[in-house]
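Protocol step 4 of 5: obtain the predicted structure for the target chain.
Materials: sequence only (see below). No template structures provided, no constraints applied. The aim of this step is simply to have a reference model before the mutagenesis design in step 5. Sequence pasted as it appears in the construct record:
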Amino acid sequence: MPIHRREFEPDAQGPLKGVQVIDMSRLIAGNTLTMVLADYGAEVVKIELPKGDPLRDWKTSGVETYWKTLARNKKSLCLDMRRPEAVEIVKDLVKQADVFVEGFRPGSLETMGLAPEILLELNPKLVVVRISGFGQSGPYRDRPGFGALVEGMTGFAASIGYADREPLMPNFPLADSFAAYAGVGAVLVALRHIETAGGQGQVIDLPLLEPMFGVLGPQAAAYRLTNKVRQRSGNRSMLTAPRGAYRCKDGRYVAVSTAIQSMAERLFHAIGRPDLVTDPRYSTFEKRAAHADELDAIMQEFLNTLTQEEAVAHFTAVDVTVGPIYDISQIIEDDHFIEREVLVEVEDDDMGSVPISGLPVRLSETPMHLYRPAPKKGADRNEVLGWIGMSEDEAEKLTKAGIVIAPR
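Step 4 output (structure tokens):
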């Protein structure tokens, strides 16, 4: 079954129609946050520097794959922010905007002449989102805000991998993505405050650090109770077993989870070992975790006899939580991913069509839409400058002066 082709719907209306967002962020966190707002109908304008958002440089075989995914539904205006005239353009846009998102190192916005107090004076109802690695305060506020640093400092890397090897860093922007989705919720809360309580705009301090730390669960409480630092345990859970990735006879893997007691018991029956249910070594979560080596060996012996497809079919038939560990070549051919439009195919100037992640959350009355492809650099110059009363001739003069960068 081929991936579904989705046409862009420029005239569709989402629940955030009328919300204007000025996006001066860079790379993953800000672009993901504003992508979600744009998917729900907000009008997002990317203010790019002359070189463009650095996300455009994240290419595969020369194609801006990250940009095509995260900049969908947005518009682009390129400004040389070293020029005071460009700063004034941003101020004029802010006067009619609802949300302003930035991702510079703390203090940079102030240096530009766009400090939050200035923005809120221009527009008291504005929601200002400040994305950084470690927040706008604290001893580390001035450190570079890359997600890898946060993934290291929150304890995430220290807990991932095997005890006899180095800590593992995710090979994709995990901390940025967590921050982005936390930021979406914060923006909607701030907008709701203005809408229902007659409240004023406010500043959202959105670091990568706190959302990443928050998803790691009760590590601090566990340390307080035991005075022990949790050691890396590979794919195993510290709470129960069997749990992890197991190799099948065709070289592919399956993921196994026994997060509830009845599931562990069903799994033991499914592998032909009902005796394990009454074995006192495996009667509780803690005991199973303490005997993970034996359970892993039992699981591996059973899965050595099945391919990945056979294993998934076998366990699914008896309602046991075992699933395939996919790579992308399998994902793009999986009927569930296709039917649910986890991936969709859209028109693309460079590739003819490109598969991108679909619309991840489904609201029955106010669905998300794909309105337009990711913009070329500065493509919406005339339209965006027209919002602040500037004619095309005036826009062209600013372009010749190097204040506005020509669409390309």
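Step 4 remarks: The first strand starts at residue 20 and ends at 24. Residues 20-215+347-400 form a domain with the Rossmann fold fold (CATH 3.40.50.10540).
Proceed to step 5.
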